[in-house]
Give the backbone structure.
Amino acid sequence: MTTPTSDQTTGWIMVLPALACVAVFSLYPAMDSFVLSLYRLYVTLPGLEASFIGFGNYEQLFQDPVAHQAFLTTLGFVLLSTTFEILLGTGIALVIHERFKGRGWVRGAVLIPWAIPTVVASQMWRFLANDQYGAINFVLFGDRVNAYIPWLADPWTAFGVIVMVDVWKTSSFAGLLVLAGLQVIPDGIYDAARIDGATAWQRFWHITLPLLKPALLAALLFRTIDAFRVFDLVFVMTQGGPGDATQVIQFYGYKTLFTEGRVGYGTTISVTVFVATLLLSLLYLLTVGSKLLERERT
Amino acid sequence: MRKTFPERTALITGMLLAVLGSLLPCLWFVLTSLKSQIQVEAIPPHWWPDGSLAFYRSALIDHQLLNYVWNSAIVASSTTAIALVIATPAAYALARLRLTGTPWILGGLLCVAMFPHIVIAGPVWQILERLGGLNTHWGLVLPYVALTLPLAVWILATFFKELPPELEEAARIDGCTAWQALYKVILPLAAPGLFTAAILTFIYAWNEFFFALLILTDPAQQTLPVGIALFQGEFTMPWGEIAAASVIATTPLIIVVLLCQRGIISGLSAGAVKE
């Protein structure tokens, strides 16, 4: 069936409002941020005119030790949390893919951490990790009150708690993406392998895992990009502390931009985060995306 | 085929771990919300609450929680309604009308959905300041619509593509325009897809914190996540009230998730692996 030209026109009219909305509130702002990052601009000093300084803010960013620390913290957070999320998510997916009585309820239950607001999850874990009234200390040490650990007051444990809460909250989302990959593997392959005497582990390692690769990579990409913009968790649980131990880059950008009003430098940080995620997505599209396309052609 | 004994043991263990790991931390917060102030501050903690509703009373009356619930309900439902009205025709055109450049539009939308929020936050704030949209609900709904559109379009387009084309082709041959085909033939069939997109959009808008924090600085306008994040007591952290407020903010979501897990699961994977 060929498409009449009137359909093309109608089609564009149908798409246009959505595109316009995205253009005004996402595309234009992203570009505007880039322009702003080329200026020296403070909202707190209205008397001072914005002055064009080229890549001056970027030079400053390269020499800013706090920014370096924030980038490293973010990178560590992204690496650790996505690794655990993919591992746990795969486990969750394998479980909820099986057929058993009450599967719907199990699926619903594991989705609950994903569904509750991040702010609520953060407050909840902040209380669970509380140094005096928290359940974590109680489970670990019981009545031995002197052994209670102030989890969020120590740089290393605070970082660990942030990673753990992110893993708790989003593993099921990673699991859903993996589940979608499991669902397209035909059952017949497993039955054949079973008849040939393959153990469950062999079936997983030699059949499931290779066929699951695209889904795993998709989950990895989605989680990586999302973990890069972690904010709510840090805002509620630690405010970047203790010291700068949990100051992730989006939180540093937020403070610079909105608390200190350093618009030029703040947008420079945000644009750098943006470019980093964009490069990651491109890398993904070039490696995984092209392979997926090839597979579809054959 | 029947499962062997070790396979069944592994499945049951995994299932228990996943369910308990997901629910036990939440249960602790629910129990906390039902305690008395003395119990919350007991060292070492108590497991079981006395069953006091004092924290709910305090959260609702002293901290005006219903006001936050109301703000969140308005923002989330307007976002959902507007996003769906805009996304439905777009998704239909992309799924069915063979627009030139369709893969680019779909890919571009996915790309935009991945933007780190902080890179758009500053300029969005400036746009809203110029329009007078700061500290208003519509000022928050506008960016929310833009942020949820990509996912809504993807879910709906994936869903429309799976509908059989025959009915619609028959309607078109009988002289229906593309709009009529969409509203008379596709929409009645697409109710489950619309429902899924609506749930996910609603959950997003109900839970979103970053933009809400920036745009709504007036406590009278703030949504639940902002309220819960900025909850302050006079001298100590009001853990009991925070727990009670969290339970109130989350219960509707949990009911929706338990009832609609099927739709949510298919919708969330629409943008990722299918296609």
In short: The two ends of chain B are 30 Å apart (CA to CA). Chain B touches chain A through 99 residues (CB under 8 Å). Chain B is about 75% helix and 0% strand.
